[in-house]
Structures are given as C-alpha cells and as structure tokens.
Amino acid sequence: MCGIVGYIGNKEAYPIIIKGLKRLEYRGYDSAGVALLSNDSLNVYKKQGKVANLEAYSGDLDTSGTSGIGHTRWATHGAPNDTNAHPHYSESESIAVIHNGIIENYDAIRKQLLSKGYTFRSDTDTEVLCYLIEDIQKNAGTKLGESVRLALQQVVGAYALVVISKKEPNKLIAARKSSPLVVGIGDEGDFYLASDATPIVEYTRQVVYLDDEEIAVIKRGEELKIYGIDDIQKTPYVQELELHLEALEKGGYDHFMLKEIHEQPRSIEDCFRGRLNAEKGRVSLGGIREYEQKLINANRVIMIACGTSWHACLVGEYLFEDLARINVEVEYASEFRYRNPIIGENDIVIAVSQSGETADTLAALELAKSRGATILGICNVVGSSISRITDAGSYTHAGPEIGVASTKAFTAQVTVLTLMALSLANQKGTLSSTKFRGMLSELEAIPAKVKKVLESNQQIEYISGEYQGASNALYLGRGSSFPVALEGALKLKEISYIHAEGYPAAEMKHGPIALIDEEMPVFVVATKGMSYEKVVSNIQEVKARKGKIIAIVTEGDEQVREIADHVIEIPETDEHLVPLLATIPFQLLSYRIAVMRGCNVDQPRNLAKSVTVE
Ligand code: F6R
Fold first, then answer.
1. Cα separation values, 408 from 17, 363, 400, 446, 533, Å
2. pLDDT given at position 479
3. Residue closest by Cα to atom 11 of ligand 1
4. Is 415 in contact with 397 (CB distance < 8 Å)?
5. What does CATH list as the number for 249-454?
6. Alpha-carbon span 309 to 311, nearest angstrom
7. Atom of ligand 1 lying closest to residue 610 CA
8. CA torsion sign, 511 to 514 to 520 to 521?
9. Nearest Cα to Cα of residue 577 among 535, 538, 539, 527
C-alpha cells in the first residue's frame, strides 16, 4: 500500500517520477504528490486522487530538477485529501519525506514535538517523522543520513521511506522496515528508487532490494552505500532484474484485469514449465525438493494467506489431503498470528502471497519462524519480502499482476499447490501410477482448456447484462469448488460493489436460503464429479424459491441445463483440477458486470494491491 518513487541523476526527475507513480498506482490511489529539487528550492506538489490529477495540477508549475521523490497514497492516518497527501515537508520546508507503512508510535513522537512548540499541518504519521528528522538535525548538527538513522531508532512500525533535503541536494536517503524498497543503479551515476521494480526496469536491470532496517545513502554520481540502523556498513547485493517491460503494458486490452484473465493459459503453462513432464511421469518443484520429506513427516502443515491467496490455500488443502494424504490446516494470516498459535520445530508453515509483501502474512511467518517452524513460501513477485525470509519456496511465475483484483495469480497459486501435492503423492505412493500419470497429463492439458473457457466471453457478456443490476449474489460450490465460490464472490464484490457471499452448497439450507427470491442470482459450480447429484439437489432448492441459477457445468451436461437459467460449460477434466477452469467464468462475469456498472475495474475503490499494513 502506497507506492514510492525517487530519482537522482542527470536526467529530469519529474517525468521519471510521474511514470513510476503510474506504474505503482495499483498500490494506492487516494492521492499523489512529488517533491522536486531545482535551483536550491524544494517544491512539493500534491493532489487528492490519481496521478493524472497531480499531472494536470503540476503542469504549469516548475517541474525542473534532476532529483526528486514521489508518492501515490493508500490512506491510513488522515483523510485522503491534498493536505494529507505525501510528500510531507519538515517544519522549515527544507526536508521532504515520502513513506509507505505505519509509524505506530507516531502519537508519542507527535506529543513530544508539540511540547517543543512545533505545529503540524496534516494528520499523518509521516509528517511527524519528517519533523523528527529535522529536529534531530537541528539539535545534533548531524547530516541528513545520520539524522534519518537516529530518527528511525525512535520509530516503532513499518516503513519504506525516501528523504530529500535542499541543504544536501546531491543526496537521497532511503530506508526500509517491513515495507518494500528497491534501488535501481543506472549506468550514468544515476539512481532510481521504488516500492517495486516496475518503475525501474525501463532504465536499468541492476537493482538492490533493501533489507529490513537498512538505510541507503544515495549520492549523485557516487557508489551506493548501505548501512544498518546500527550504523554498520554493508555491501550492497546487486541483482539482475528478469522483468520485461511489455509485461507492464495493457497490450491492447481495455483493462489490466482483462489482459491478466486472458493471460492465464500462458501463466499456468509458465508455472509448470520445467517442473512437469507428463510423458516421463515427472513432477518436481526444485525450490522445495529438499523439504518434501519434512512435509511428509511434519507434525502439522499450516497454510497461511489473506484474501484470494487464502482461497488458493483452501484448494491446496483439498489437494494435499486427497492426493497426498497430508493433513493441512488453512489459516487467515491475521488470525493465526494473534492467536498465540501452538507451533514448533516439526511444523511447516506455507505462506501463499502474490505480492510477497502482505503485512499479516509476513508477520505470521516471522512468528512461526521464531517458534522454530520451517517456513515455505509461494509468491509471485520475485525478490519480495516473503520470498526472502522463507527457508525455501516456489515462485508462481505468473508475471506482474497489475489489476488490483487477483486473477492469474490465483490460478498460478493453485497450479503450484497442485504440483506440490502431486509430487508429495508420488513420494508417498498415495496415488497409483496410472492415476498419477493421468493427472500429470490432465494438468498439462489445462492451458488449452482455459483457452476454450475464455471463448465463452460473448455468452458471459449476455449473462452479465442480465444481472448487472443485482444488489446481492450467492456463490455455491462443494469440495474444492467451495473455494472457487468464495473467490467468485470476492471478485464480484471487490470490483462491482455488489454484495456477494460464497458458501459450501450444502450450507445454504442452514441460513442463506432465507435470502433467496426471484431477485437473487445464485452462481453454482455444478461440474461432474463426486458431489454432482448433491449440487443438483441444491440447485432444485434454489429454483423452488424462484432464485436465478447461473451454473458452471461440464461440457455436454444436460441435467443442470434443464433446470438452470443459464449454464456456462467448461471442458471435462480431473475433478481435482476443476478450480483452474471453473474460476475463469467467475472472473469474466465479475469483470463484465463491473464494466457495465461503470466501475473502475483495475483500481476499485478503497483497495490497494499490496497490503503492507496490518
Ligand atoms: C483480491 C486480492 C486480495 C489479495 C490479498 C492478499 O482480488 O487481490 O484479496 O489476494 O490482499 O494479497 P497477496 O496475495 O499479495 O498476499
């Protein structure tokens, strides 16, 4: 949450920062701002709303200068208005700060500064930090880097921040703790800073991911220096970016979400490339191979995540239990960490996260690690915090996901979990060789089947037109289609603002059935498999109360077609793999409905993609 960008070098900073902020807008879009250093003056321009508002506003102002910082905000402390937008000035306006995270003890620091006679302009925790830096500098006579370091020693909380000062114009100071920050090293003595690598990749591939409690002292034309908060100098670990620029563009689609939905045949294939060979009967996830025996013998295997990634874990639970006969518990990271969980050395905690930065998931992992558990990660963003603190893990290789609503990351997470479950099943011998090989072939065939599901676009558009005016919706599924129902409901509510709930189909009669009338669309996964007949009965129960049924069925199904209002067919596949197909029509339905309702699909209200606050 919140995106930060910085630049210092020989080029004009403003266009680089604006472009970078647009790439990071998925992290928050309540307000945007820049601080630019030109001719000894430090100018801050900021505006409520999107980066485009800031651009329109700052167009006639002085945007020259070769160093600057920029911010796109997801509000935590203080309303989303111009005043609370970042950057924040220090009292004398000679320092400006951008910040992603939360200063938990900001009130205590604020009171301490108020007692010294300072008055604040905004309601934010960040402004307090900026004042503190200046206060330290004034009293201790320290340089900017040292003042930031001393200020951070007083701070409790999370931060990725960049500080600029007109008194030391050839320098930017950056620091991180629990919020991500990347430094890009240009080849002309210039430096780029950002919350992730997407604003940096078009200028350089050489990057350094800052670690927790590290401070970067970035001087124009000099070597990057990194210090611990304890002042011990460290050697920067320079990495080569693998990201490609075209992955960050819409590529002809109206929205990133639509592009990402359509990328799924490729992203699923990329996910199992080199890991799956059906012909040779092989499946292997290099990243976790060494931990497979441990997983098999573990006392407990706990999967933790938030939101969509939590739904992927629920699918994973079915797969691990049914295929590999390994018991799995799935927990919301936020609940797990505050419950004083009983966890020890023989337990394995697997975190699933697209961004690899979700604060609750990260903190839950740290807790598990501190109690001796082995921690594994399934992340999409390479180099993210979770991928770096885990003992081992597997990337999902879905490519950058920019639409705030997760789509291709979900199917990639489910693919990795399927590969893991199959590999473990193979090790344990819980599947016959015919079944095992059959499943590998089925998995290999999934990308082509996803392509086929995507062809139902026109029919989905028609159905979306029928239900775009709904105020509520129910999603039902059984077995591993229950998480698909949860995910369908989440997609609908987050981008179209229609209230939707997902339920195990059998649970409907324990309460939600009271909601059903002729106005209520009920989306059901009714594919062929073990619970097919039971789901058909549930559909009958809805129809008896005049509810509208939109069913996802297996190609050729006649029984549900007769009773449902609409059916969307998906190709036949192994029951364990149905989530990878059944989820696609739900993504498309949510997308189409949201577009018809005039919602901002890629940047839904109140949301941000990378949730780095608890
Ligand atoms: C929903 C969505 C969120 C995320 C959740 C976890 O579409 O994107 O629910 O799934 O915030 O994020 P990650 O996976 O980055 O940990």
1. 28, 25, 9, 14, 30
2. 95
3. 307
4. no
5. 3.40.50.10490
6. 5
7. 15
8. positive
9. 527
- Does residue 604 carry a pLDDT above 90? no
Distance CA 485, CA 491 (A): 10
- Which two tokens mark 323? 């295929």
Nearest-atom index, ligand 1, CA of 358: 16
**Residues recorded for the chain:** 614
Ligand 1: residues with CB < 6 A are 306-309, 353-355, 358, 361, 405-406, 490, 494, 611
State the burial class of residue 376 (Cβ atoms within 10 Å of its Cβ: 0-12, 13-18, 19+). Answer: buried
Distance (Å) from CA 308 to ligand 1 centroid? 5
311 CA to middle of ligand 1, Å?
10
Q: Which residue has the tokens 């950002």?
A: 194
Phi, psi of 410 (to 5 degrees): -65, -50
Please tell me the predicted confidence (pLDDT) of residue 378. Answer: 98
Give residue 410 CA to ligand 1 midpoint distance, Å: 9
Does the domain at 455-614 match CATH 3.30.470.10? Answer given as no
Residue 50, classed as helix, strand or coil, is coil
Q: Residue 580: pLDDT band by 50, 70, 90 thresholds? A: very high
Pick from 354, 384, 410 the residue to mutate for probing ligand 1's pocket: most ligand atoms within 8 Å of its CB.
354
Q: What pLDDT is attached to residue 320?
A: 98
Enumerate the domain spans of the chain: 3-247, 249-454, 455-614
- 241 Cα to the center of ligand 1, angstroms: 23
Average the pLDDT over 227-250 and give the result: 89
Q: What is the mean pLDDT of the segment spanning 76-105?
A: 92
Residue type at 302 in one-letter notation: I
Measured in Å, residue 464 CA sits from the centre of ligand 1 at 24
Model pLDDT, residue 613: 67
Question: Relative to the CA of 381, which ligand 1 atom is closest?
Answer: 15
The residues annotated as belonging to the active site are 2, 609
For 118-140, what is each residue's pLDDT tens digit?
Answer: 999 998 999 999 999 999 999 99
Which amino acid is present at 62?
D
Protein residue closest via CA to atom 5 of ligand 1: 307
Q: Which residues pair with 265 in a beta bridge?
A: none
Mutation choice for ligand 1 from 304, 306, 379, 413, CB with most ligand atoms inside 8 A: 306
CA–CA gap between residue 236 and residue 227 (Å, rounded): 9
d(C-alpha 560, C-alpha 557), whole Å: 7
Per-residue pLDDT averaged across 512-517, rounded? 89
Hey, whose CA ends up nearest to atom 9 of ligand 1?
307
Contact present, 605 and 496 (Cβ < 8 Å): no
Same fold, 249-454 and 455-614: yes
Give the whole-angstrom CA distance, residue 175 versus residue 27. 19
CATH code of the domain occupying 3-247: 3.60.20.10
Q: Which atom in ligand 1 lies closest to the alpha carbon of residue 491? A: 7
φ and ψ of 24, to 5 deg: -100, 5
Helices and strands in the chain: count of H runs, count of E runs:
19, 27
- Among the atoms of ligand 1, which is closest to the Cα of residue 307? 9
Residue of the CA atom closest to atom 4 of ligand 1? 307
Ligand 1 centroid–CA 366 distance in Å is 19
